Amino acid sequence: MTGFTPLLIPFGVILFSLAVHESAHAWSAARFGDRTAERLGRISLNPIRHIDPIGTLLLPIVAMTAGAPIIGWAKPVPVDPHNLKRPRQDFLYIAAAGPASNIVLAVVASVVMSVAPVTPISVPVWAIAGAAFDINILLAVFNMVPIPPLDGGNVLAGLLPEALAEPFDRLLRPWGFVLLYALLLTGVLGDIIMPAHAALSELLIL
Questions:
Q1: Taking 80 as the threshold, does the pLDDT of residue 25 lie above it?
Q2: What residues make up the domain containing 52?
Q3: pTM, full prediction
């Protein structure tokens, strides 16, 4: 493999995985009655439709070159709650669909690694499947951190009583990314996601 391969493989995997993640949001929103994202072409595996300059490009590239865990996000899928029959409950499912899609991708990668023979020819398959397994578990765990606008924050808002959900969202959403960057730079975010990543990896590996 060339010198670029160790970077190209995880970068390609994260682009595809984030496209699947956002497509899952858009597809589930359409199933629950809001076709806003579908009309914008967000039910697509074309990464260009989902790219966020920081979360999809800058952060993963910095993480890869620094040898840090590869996390990221894509351009948020727009959802109009007025088109949902049960806005709070349906939005919870739409939010959970993204991390769930990453878990599905991790399971598929685990199956591939369990059945692919160990031969020189299969080395690229193992490299791609291994990266897909690790990155998709990281994406699922990271996105379920209960801080809006991450999916975990939206899921938690849907689970909280309505009297608590509204102030929770109003207070945290404007500062969500600031809080995430603070947690990332202080190392606290890694302390949160890495134990969950390890536990989920052990559970899903075949």
A1: yes
A2: 5-204
A3: 0.91
